[in-house]
Amino acid sequence: MDTTLLVGLLAAFFTTFAFAPQSIKTLKTRNTEGISITMYIMFLTGVISWVVYGFLRSDIAVLIANVITFFLAAPVLLITLINYKRGKK
What we know:
The protein is mostly helical. The protein has a single domain (1-84), classed as Monooxygenase, CATH 1.20.1280.290. It has helices at 3-17, 20-29, 37-56, 60-85. Helix 1 (3-17) packs parallel to helix 4 (60-85). It is elongated and about 50 Å long. It starts with a helix and ends with a helix. One of its GO terms (cellular component) is membrane. It is found in: Membrane. It is a multi-pass membrane protein. Keywords: Membrane, Transmembrane, Transmembrane helix.
């Protein structure tokens, strides 16, 4: 396997699945104390942009990695917004 490809795959794996522990914890506990709404909105805007980029460039690796990242990070933002609306911040 090409070294450059391997480095890219490792980077995609770790940056994509870095959100799994936070997502799992948030889904289990519903505790979003200390989570920045602004950061998650900005992050998910970037992720959606990467999805569009991957689609337009026909780059399946970028597309898949960012679709997975979106589905891991979006629930955290959603629960954070719900908690904020309920006054739990």
